[in-house]
Amino acid sequence: MNSMKVNRISTFLIICCAVIMAGILAGLIGYILYQGVSNISLHFLTSDASAFLAGGGIKNQLWNSFYILLITMILTVPLGIAGGIYMAEYAKPNKLTGFMRSCLEVLSSLPSIVVGMFGLLVFVNFFHWEYSILSGALALTVFNLPVIVRVCEDALRSVPHDQRLSGLALGLTQWHTIKKVLLPAAFPGILTGLILSAGRVFGESAALLFTAGLSTPNLDFTNWNPLAPNSPLNLLRSAETLSVHIWAVNSDSIIPDAKQVASGAAAVLVICILLFNLFARCLGKLVERKMIGK
After folding, report:
1. End-to-end CA distance of the chain
2. Domain ABC transmembrane type-1, which positions (predicted)?
3. Are 198 and 276 in contact (CB under 8 A)?
4. 3-state SS class at 2
């Protein structure tokens, strides 16, 4: 068998694998949307969940999901970008750096349920923050931080080395070269990675089962005092997120329309994650075009 035939067979097999994966993904997303889109309405998105009666919504769970995501990204982005800069520009190839990379690999590959158990032991029990938004956000920070460090490091390493040398040749210090030359050049890749990681955090459930809790108070959206028990901004209240709500409704809910609520919530979750991915790609391309134009 000559190399031309081997190349054609390999190409055919790769295309088949890609088509199979795309087909499975499209089928899964299509099934979820087909089952759930018909259950989505303005009332469903803006009404409180019901524990016993039919007709409940996902208002509080949807807010909790976005709020925990916001707190998580506030905690994760500065640490992740700083870690990525260090690993890409300052860390020397030695045993310490190798150990740090191994730690990042282990953290990024940990099952989310393990991160949830860690959050339960440390944030909920040791620090006595109970089941709360703060405990959930910190657990997701542990879960998401290695991803952002790797994204930032890879984006910085993708910048041509000549740009580093040009900044240093102009008399800039290493930090000013990173700040003025490398970070702007790597910004599209960093931004895309941040938005994609946000979509990953938004759909997380296992880590939040043990940290944010399985219940949420009926939030008063007229009271924005962060110390009030039912305030949307209170960091120390329990907060059932959308993904956790789907699990709870499917597992032990007694409401008559449990299937419809779970299907509608799953469709909303999938749509949000798809929008995160679409927004990441569009924004990354837009920023890259503007930078090329400059």
Report:
1. 51
2. 62-280
3. yes
4. coil
